[in-house]
Amino acid sequence: MPSSHGAAGKQKPPKPDCYHCSYKSSGDLNKPGFVFTADFLLLLLLLLLLLLLLPEQVERLWPGMRVLCSVGLFVGLLHLSSSLLLGAFNIKTFGDTKASNVTLMDIISTVVHRYDVILIQEVRDNDLTATQKLMEHVNKGSSQFSYIVSEPLGRTTYTERYLFLYRQASVSVVKNYTYDDGCESCGTDTFMREPFVVMFSSKSTALPTFTLIPQHTSPDSAVAETDALYDVVTDVRTRWNTNNIVLLGDFNAGCSYVSGSNWEQIRLFTDKSFHWLIPNTADTTVSNTNCPYDRIVVTADMLKGVVQGSAQVYDFMADLKLSQSLALAVSDHFPVEVKLTTSLFAA
């Protein structure tokens, strides 16, 4: 279904044209394994300061510490400056009309170029002409980005595709499949738009492969569909023998669609081995509602490959200095994003 959420969300004051609101993850991001963090770099800096102030005493107590700290600081700073950025963006009704608007395509392309892998939802493009226009606009004669796209998904004549754009220099597609959620014609299927699951590989990330499970829930079935993502994870684990899994997209997981006691009905939430990186306090809407519809959820193993505190809402309206009306012409959603670590020292 199209993403028309205005009436369902909590009202908030109108957003100024360039108001920036981004949200750091409040989830548990204490990763197992050895990964350079800001706290660790601070410790290295303190040790280097001691070396500068008391070089003879430190060298006498810890021979070779100066070299060790210098190397560690260099590698740590290199790690913090390099990461792979993953995003999910519900571009409201992306089809031929929007693809023919140069102004909107310029904005969308700018957003795409922010990411190494980006999931685009609400792709209303049966013949892929809009997708081809997007790729031409994004690449502008190069082949920097490639894409993988699902079949049109839906129970009626209204269908959407899941579209992944990715930098070919950063990642490669390993394999993919569409989750079998039952018989649509029988009315026994689970999802309005069943997940199109894609495994990517990267030579630079701490985890060499990671699997993305996209989902754009039907608002009226958001609780049941978000809960059913638990079964999709189980299927992926069985099929591919991996637990490096990211679930992402417009879950409609907030405001009137998912609230209060609804959360206890969602296994993806009650099972604490899953980490919700975009919290309930986030606002992923461009309009004057205040709702955390768009989410990123990772498994415990995947958490090892996530840069601590990097999950957030990307306010393209503020970043690109757009009016609210122009931003809404692009989408009524902000992208959500998270960085995957490229540290060679991650477990």
UniProtKB/TrEMBL annotation:
GO terms for cellular component: extracellular region; nuclear envelope; zymogen granule. InterPro entries: DNase_I, DNASE_I_2, Endo/exonu/phosph_ase_sf, Endo/exonuclease/phosphatase. Its cofactor is Mg(2+); Ca(2+). Its main location: nucleus. PROSITE patterns: DNASE_I_2. It is found in: Nucleus envelope; Secreted; Zymogen granule. It catalyses: Endonucleolytic cleavage to 5'-phosphodinucleotide and 5'-phosphooligonucleotide end-products. Residues 88-333 form the Endonuclease/exonuclease/phosphatase domain. One of its GO terms (biological process) is DNA catabolic process. Keywords: Calcium, Cytoplasmic vesicle, Disulfide bond, Endonuclease, Glycoprotein, Hydrolase, Membrane, Nuclease, Nucleus, Secreted, Transmembrane, Transmembrane helix. SMART domains: DNaseIc (SM00476). The chain crosses the membrane at residues 34-55, 67-89. The keyword Hydrolase applies. GO terms for molecular function: deoxyribonuclease I activity; DNA binding. Its EC number is 3.1.21.1. Belongs to the DNase I family. PANTHER family: DEOXYRIBONUCLEASE (PTHR11371), DEOXYRIBONUCLEASE-1-LIKE 2 (PTHR11371:SF29). This is Deoxyribonuclease-1. The lineage of its organism: Eukaryota, Metazoa, Chordata, Craniata, Vertebrata.
